[in-house]
Structure formats: C-alpha cells, structure tokens
Specification:
It is found in: Cell membrane. Keywords: ATP-binding, Cell membrane, Kinase, Membrane, Nucleotide-binding, Transferase. The chain folds into 2 domains: about 10-30 and about 165-335, Transferase(Phosphotransferase) domain 1 (Transferase(Phosphotransferase), domain 1), CATH 1.10.510; about 35-160, Phosphorylase Kinase, domain 1 (2-Layer Sandwich), CATH 3.30.200. Helices cover about 30% and strands about 15% of the residues. The chain has 9 helices and 13 strands. It is globular. The structure holds adenosine-5'-triphosphate (ATP) and magnesium ion (MG). The site of adenosine-5'-triphosphate (ATP) has 21 residues, from strand 3 and strand 5.
Amino acid sequence: MTVMKITWRSIIPSCSKGVVKPEGKPKKDVSKQGSFTRFAMLDFSYPSSMLSEDLSTSLAGSNLYVFTLGELRLITNSFSSANFLGQGGFGPVHKGFIDDKLRPGLKAQSVAVKLLDLEGLQGHREWLTEVIFLAQLRHPHLVKLIGYCCEEEHRLLVYEYMPRGSLENQLFRRYSVSLPWATRMKIALGAAKGLAYLHEAEKPVIYRDFKASNILLDSDYTAKLSDFGLAKDGPEGDDTHVSTRVMGTEGYAAPEYVMTGHLTVMSDVYSFGVVLLELLTGRRSLDKKRSPREQNLVEWARPILNDARKLGRIMDPRLEGQYSESTKGSCIGLSMP
Ligand SMILES: Nc1ncnc2c1ncn2[C@@H]1O[C@H](COP(=O)(O)OP(=O)(O)OP(=O)(O)O)[C@@H](O)[C@H]1O
Ligand SMILES: [Mg+2]
C-alpha cells in the first residue's frame, strides 16, 4: 500500500455537521484497514490555531459522524455527574445514548463521550492523533470511534460504550470479587490481538501507551485498546526505529525507549509484558503505597522470575490455584521483562 502524503492543511478539522460519507463500499472484513489509503502522521506539525479546511473530507471512507457540542450536551444530560464514567489526562468521560433521531441511520446504542479539558495537559494534538488513527483502524480488539466534535476550542470524541470499564478498574478495584484466571487470560489474549493488528498492519502503528487503564472491557470481557493520542507510525524502509520525545506512562514504558527516545514495536511488547505481570500478580505496575522495594512491579518481580523455585510467590493469592502449573509457567515466561 502506498502511503498518501497529505499536508497538514488538508486534514485540519472543520466543524461541519453530518456523517463523513464513505467513498466506496465499506469493507466487510473488520480486521483489515479502512477502505481508503491510510495516511501517515509522521511528518505533520501541529499548529494550535484553527484552520478552515475539512477533516471530514480527508477521512472520507471512515464513517465517522461529526457531532455538534449541543448534540453531545443533549445526549449526556449536560455532562451530568449521573452520567460520569471517569477522568483521565485528556478530560472527563460521560455516558450518553444515540439513535437515529440524532442522525438518520445511526444505530441506537450507548456511547462514551470524552471531553477535552481545556485547562489540562493534553490538547488538540492528542485529539487529532486519536481521530486520525481510529478513523483508519478498525478491529474487534480496538475500541470503535463513532464520531467527534470540533467546535471553536472544544474537542470531543464519541466512542462505543464499554460496559465493564477499564482493566485497571476491574483488576484493582478494592471491594469486588477478583477477576478469575480464565477472564484474565481472555483479556490478555484480546489485548495481544489488538496490539498484533497494529504491529502487523501494512503500515505498522506503535501504540505507545499500552497499560491497564487503556484496555477497555465489553460486557463479555472482550478487551479493546483505547486512547490513541500517543500512537505513532512505525519506522519506514530500512529504519529500525522512530526517534521521538519520550512519552508514555511510568511503570509501563520500556527502559530502552525512555533512555534513548528510540521507539519500536518492541516498546509496546515490553508494556504488554508489564500488563501481563499485573494480571498474574494483581499488583499495579507502580504502587507508591507499597514499601520502597515493592513499588515498581518489574523491579520487584525480576529476581523472582529468574529463580524457578520462587515463581509461585509471584502469583495473585486471590487466584487460589485456578490455573495449571504449565499455563502459569508459560504466562510467566511471556511476561519476563
Ligand atoms: N469507551 C468507554 N466506555 C466506557 N467507559 C470508558 C470509555 N472510555 C473511557 N471510559 C472510562 O473513563 C475513564 C477515563 O478514561 P481515559 O481514557 O480518559 O483515562 P485513563 O485511561 O484512565 O487515563 P490516561 O489519561 O492516563 O489514559 C476510564 O477509566 C474508563 O472507566
Ligand atoms: Mg486511557
């Protein structure tokens, strides 16, 4: 597939209303990229000022809906606290409901509406990166972006609603039954499939923020990756890595990336190993409430993982032996940092 080099100006958001019309027939195979050539983020600069060209034109074929702020206010009951789902670095997330009264053809469904916090650390750059990547990538293990809103300085994203929230909430929630072993393995496998899809795409994508809070769970615990605000196009041609400003989350980011700024798909694989360790141990990658020796999960686990006689100590005691010894061994092997 040739990479369509398009200029920044051609992808700047417009605030037009309506659905982005597909150019051709939508593809049935969801595991393939969209029905148009995926374009790269790599060479773009990010002007903070609004320009008038049309993002929706560039995203033709993606089936994204463009919503107004008024519409999103309406469907979230004015972003009421009763609809509040959670808050991350981008801003608050609220539950809403959409159907074909809002737009003809729109499937009746619950959605999660993410609102950029205008005082926060993230901004237009992360919003646009998310829109561009998720508009072009579709897979059963990636959260589906339904649409977006860009009105004056406001930036919002509308996703399919994931009833079980994030893996972080499910795994580390204090007062709840612990996730069974089989569910943990289903989540690990689903997340791995999402990551493999990104890495094996014709034009690979490095996700860069693989962590428990970015793995969302459907009602049957199907895992879907969310948050593409830090995603990067992979190296091209003979290049082995992409050089970037170091970004990501402490406790999950690969040490070689943090030290050199050289980003590869292996940086995501490292973070996958950390999440797998979290699933096996029930411990957070970074937990300031623990004793200094145990705060960093990888540092605590490494000597234990290297000593076969001590391996049993690492497992989450709440699992109470729900796994076979051989499965435990394979998982520990995979999570080796
Ligand atoms: N599509 C969704 N369906 C249901 N809940 C969601 C959805 N997206 C986000 N949430 C909820 O909103 C919370 C905040 O999500 P968000 O991705 O903004 O932040 P985060 O992942 O916790 O932190 P970070 O900014 O570091 O990524 C999540 O913990 C999750 O519970
Ligand atoms: Mg997140």
